[in-house]
Write a structure and sequence with these properties.
The chain contains five helices and six strands. By secondary structure, it is an alpha/beta fold. It has one domain: Leucine Aminopeptidase, subunit E, domain 1 (3-Layer(aba) Sandwich).
Length: about 180
């Protein structure tokens, strides 16, 4: 099975899809916020926040592109993997690499946790203003590179809440020939 068969673009609510790990587009404090981060914390319940607080007490803030895992609380998953996406325009020389790291580091941690199915939101394309087409290309490249080398991950779901990200990702994923 080639990497394209392992990646699926889905339109929907990431908090309602059954997977092994849900990736959260978190802020560096891991304390919940707006967008997908707030939705995951609300749907998952207080146990996620409790574990986030413990992580932050140990490490301070979670750096951009890095990851940390918590339980999934009431979500239909085993884990939430929190990652901090780059804010577009803050670090132009490194922001593409930092966004790619969000995806590859989350998949690496998911693999270490023996997860087979992982769902991702559109990291940094909301309030962090990363251009959606650029983010789609970066995310797909990072995911393809990881799953080409790692056989643990069987399926990656790219879950789009909005139609624009959905259409962009569908075009990007189908426009490539392998």
């Amino acid at each position: 099975m080639n990497s394209s068969n392992k990646i699926e673009v889905v339109k929907g609510d990431i908090t309602k899809i059954e997977v092994d790990a849900i990736v959260n587009a978190a802020n560096s404090s891991l304390m919940g916020g707006g967008g997908v981060d707030g939705a995951i914390h609300r749907a998952g319940g207080p146990s996620i926040l409790e574990e986030c607080e413990t992580i932050i007490q140990k490490i301070g803030k979670l750096p951009t592109g890095e990851v940390a895992a918590t339980n999934a609380g009431n979500l239909p998953a085993k884990y939430v993997i929190h990652t901090v996406g780059p804010i577009y325009g803050r670090n132009p020389e490194k922001e593409n690499e930092l966004l790619a790291n969000c995806y590859s580091n989350a998949l690496k941690l998911a693999s270490e946790l023996n997860c087979r199915i992982v769902s991702f939101p559109n990291i940094s394309t909301g309030i962090y203003h990363f251009p959606k087409t650029t983010a789609a290309k970066i995310s797909l490249a990072a995911i393809r590179e990881f799953i080409a080398k790692n056989k643990t991950i069987e399926k990656v779901l790219l879950v789009c809440y909005d139609s624009e990200n959905y259409e962009i990702l569908k075009t990007e994923i189908s426009g490539k020939i392998y």
